[in-house]
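Run log, item B.
One chain of 154 residues. Sequence copied directly from the ordering sheet:
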Amino acid sequence: MSINNSSFYQLIFSEGLYKLKPEVAPEAVAALATKGSPFLFLYKETKQPIDPELLVMLNKMIAAVQLDPAKTPVHNVADQEMDFRVIKATETVKVILAFGCEPKDLQLVIPYKNARPVDHLGIRIFFLDALSHISEVPTRKKFLWTLLKEIFSL
């Protein structure tokens, strides 16, 4: 049995099963790339206002892995949509730590398991528990610290 590739692609693209989005806006890439860090920290906290203690915890975490919080991009995907194509287009980000996020929050459709690395197009992504959940349970904090030491070779 042979599969006609052109018929397959025509079905996928013309039937709306896969829609190509417009090109990535250069200003979106520039805004993310200005920090030039190979690490990107994303979090999804929908409760407003965001508990300031969560942001303090995140900044302490960034400093603990010997990164400069001022030079490390951090984004709340609940407030600001994030597209993986923008991240990829920066050509600087190599590791994403996504707290409380799922692939759909990055406009991706990929399989994942919580706290397990996903390698996608040269970028390693860790989908982790939400910051609010980590802050509530000491064993989650300990697990996160163990994972961070492994990721950052500490």
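Observations after the first pass:
- The helical segments are 5-14, 26-33, 52-64, 84-90, 131-136, 138-151.
- The chain has one domain: 21-151.
Flagged for discussion on Thursday.
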